[in-house]
Specification:
Distance between the termini: 55 Å
Oligomer: single chain
Order of helices and strands: HHHHHHHEHEHHHHEEHEHHHHHHHH
Structural class: mainly alpha
Number of strands: 5
Radius of gyration: 34 Å
Low-confidence stretches: 571-627
Helix content: 55-70%
Strand content: under 5%
Shape: elongated
Mean pLDDT: 81
Largest sheet: 5 strands, antiparallel
């Protein structure tokens, strides 16, 4: 932002890089692998969080412009350290609880993000603060930025903070206008309604055309395949530990295959069962008994009959003349070491599947039918339970959509609980509930914004999948950064709610706004020109939504809500029905801690004097002697 801080800014970027590198090392040592989602999202997340905190520390240092460099650095860290620490703890906990989920990609992302945020915080309060002090000494000694060996004519002056002046003189008065407050609340209600509608409308899936370059040969292949292919994928019913001579087990199998065959929406009948062909083979008095060699089959045990059956070759008379081709099922039957049947499978084919919805419906319906009948098997051996399940190669991928909504809700609930508990322990109930509601509202509004953008732009849609769920979890951590600094600055300020909001926005608003413009908005803007549709949808569109929604909650909605619903602050002004606004006794950030406490004590004494006429001189009043 300012040429005089280029060296300090470069050190800040190096700290972000170091945080990510250290986190990757720790995660690797713990034996976790990495996915595309983790390696692409976490660096942006740490850059967004890290640079925001750097702006906050630098601005606090610039405000404390009296005393030695060490004294100013100490005052700056004392002023903003609690909010930075609270934000870091909330973010680490919000991401750490994601490790408890069963989605592998989400586990790796959450572990990596939590570790990187922890390292970033550690480096900020140690290395960056040290570099800030060295940079201040460089400025005092009249040396140039980066090229420190060169001197200027005198000490380098601190640049003016135009954004801070804009927030104090233009933005805050406009925001606190009555009409603006009403508009903000109406917009918030509208976003909530839209988000509730969007929750029911967002679809599951990740279009494979989105994941590859739009001008590649593979992209055109997938598009032509979806348009022209008339054959569906092969699937199986896998059966374990069944007794194929038991009438009950065979009856369940018959009902299962009939139900699948009748599911014409996703299955092409029939279900190819080796058991049906084997039962034909197993008739000793049939017309094909001589050609198939089964005239004496009744004297053999079941396992021997089955082994005899799978030896009937496809070029034999039995196969060519009667259609009994046991060799076609040789890969569908597995014998155990004792010669018994352990596992078998039936085959069936799905209808042509052209999009993500088709794949998810095909997987879901086949699994539901097979699981329903699998529960009907009568268990006779606890060590070898009978079971059946549906399997196809594409089931392995689409299985995630059977639980991904639950994973998203679980992670969001864990993150919200962690944020609430952390702020409650660090600060108080008011701050905890305010940050909790802001984070929840930000994540919920992100759903509505995603649905609205899908409807506006059309084409490829942002859907519910591992990438969007990771973005949602990231939003829960990043939203803390937008809100907690304003909230804690508000609680440290004195006066009526509007004056405290003005003070909080003056202290923290410029740092948050500069962080949004530089590291977030400009960084995300580059992704709009990416050749990959995945980047444009899930990284540019969703990241931009996260940034704008977070900024709205931190810089617009939260200040407005605090001025309207902070009953605690309003009660302090009306004790005994007497107006006793403590905003007359504001304390400058330039004053030291001792003076801050003494003025605060005098304010309390004057309040008591106003409410108790028997106290004639508030300055000589000692609160410690009051019963």
């Amino acid at each position: 932002i300012n040429a005089e801080y280029m060296g300090l800014g470069l050190c800040g970027i190096l700290i972000v890089v170091a945080s990510v590198v250290c986190a990757v090392a720790v995660v690797s040592l713990c034996g976790f692998g990495f996915s595309m989602i983790s390696t692409e999202v976490v660096p942006f997340l740490i850059l967004a969080i890290g640079v925001d905190n750097m702006f906050i520390i630098v601005n606090a240092f610039r405000r404390s412009n009296k005393g030695s460099v060490e004294h100013r650095v100490g005052k700056a860290v004392a002023a903003v350290g609690p909010s930075i620490s609270a934000a870091a703890i909330c973010e680490v906990l919000a991401f750490a609880v994601g490790v408890l989920t069963k989605a592998p990609a989400l586990v790796v992302f959450c572990f990596l993000a939590a570790t990187a945020v922890a390292f970033n915080f550690l480096f900020q309060i140690t290395a960056f603060v040290s570099v800030l002090a060295l940079d201040a000494i460089r400025r005092q000694s009249g040396r140039r930025d980066i090229l420190c060996c060169l001197r200027t004519d005198g000490p380098v002056a601190e640049p003016s903070n135009r954004i801070k002046n804009f927030i104090e003189e233009k933005y805050t008065p406009f925001l606190l206008h009555k009409g603006t407050k009403v508009a903000v609340l109406l917009v918030t209600v509208g976003l909530f309604v839209l988000s509730g509608f969007g929750c029911a409308k967002l679809t599951l899936g990740l279009n494979q055309e989105v994941t590859i370059l739009s001008d590649s040969d593979l992209f055109h292949y997938f598009r032509d395949e979806a348009r022209l292919l008339e054959a569906g994928p092969i699937s199986y019913i896998v059966l374990e530990n069944l007794n194929y001579t038991d009438a009950d087990d065979v009856g369940v199998l018959r009902n299962m295959t009939d139900a699948l065959s009748e599911n014409n929406a996703t299955v092409v009948p029939p279900v190819f069962s080796w058991l049906k062909t084997f039962n034909q083979f197993n008739i000793s008095i049939a017309d094909w008994a001589t050609d198939c060699g089964t005239t004496d089959i009744d004297d053999l045990p079941f396992n021997e009959k089955l082994k005899m059956f799978i030896k009937v070759g496809i070029d034999s008379v039995c196969c060519k003349k009667y259609g009994i081709c046991g060799e076609a099922f040789v890969s569908d039957i597995v014998f155990n070491s004792s010669g018994g049947v352990s596992t078998t499978r039936f085959r069936f084919s799905h209808t042509p599947l052209r999009n993500q919805k088709d794949y998810i419906n095909a997987f879901g319906s086949a699994r539901a039918i097979v699981d329903r009948f699998s529960n009907q098997f009568v268990q006779t051996d606890a060590a070898r339970p009978k079971r059946a399940y549906a399997y196809s190669l594409f089931y392995v991928y689409f299985d995630q959509y059977s639980y991904i909504r639950g994973v998203a809700l679980q992670n969001l609930a864990f993150a919200l609980a962690a944020v609430y508990a952390a702020v409650l322990l660090i600060r108080n109930f008011q701050a905890a509930i305010a940050i909790f509601l802001c984070v929840f509202s930000s994540c919920f509004t992100l759903v509505g914004a995603t649905y609205a953008l899908n409807s506006i732009f059309g084409g490829y849609q942002v859907e519910i999948n591992a990438v969007s769920v990771v973005n949602l979890v990231m939003a829960s951590g990043l939203s803390v950064e937008f809100c907690i600094h304003i909230m804690l600055a508000y609680q440290r300020a004195y006066g009526d709610p509007e004056l405290r909001v003005q003070k909080a926005l003056s202290m923290m608003g410029s740092s948050i706004l500069v962080g949004i413009v530089t590291t977030k908005f400009l960084g995300v803007l580059v992704l709009a020109f990416a050749n990959s549709t995945l980047f444009r949808l899930y990284y540019f569109r969703m990241y931009l939504s996260i940034i704008l929604i977070g900024a709205f909650h931190g810089l617009v909605l939260l200040p407005v809500v605090l001025t309207l619903f902070d009953n605690e602050a309003k009660t302090k002004q009306r004790l005994g029905g007497i107006e006793a606004s403590v905003n007359l006794f504001e304390v400058s950030e330039d004053d030291d801690h001792y003076h801050h406490q003494s003025v605060r004590l005098e304010n309390e004494q004057m309040m008591r004097t106003i409410l108790d006429p028997s106290i004639s001189n508030y300055k000589s009043y000692d609160p410690s002697k009051d019963d």
